[in-house]
Write a structure and sequence with these properties.
C2D1A protein; mainly alpha; 2 helices; DNA-binding transcription repressor activity, RNA polymerase II-specific
Length: about 90
Amino acid sequence: PQQPAGGAALLAELAERAELYRAALGNAAREGGNGARLRRLQRGLKTLEQMLESVRSGKPIDEAEIPPPVALGKGGGAPGPPPPANPEPPEQPP
């Protein structure tokens, strides 16, 4: 089956997004939190997997139906570097 010109890029985008959904699903399950969020992630992942199969078999998909990117929701992760305590050099007395 021949893919359209953007088929490879679309396939890569779908695969990357599916990986993000899997990671977010794993994080959400470990946190044992929001059941609605878990279901939403599962639905999104299922949709992405179906779209991946369609693209691989050469069938067109509606790109507007691709689930949106998802935040991984890593709770308790290491925060970024702290801001500098004193960004200006100390003044020397005259």
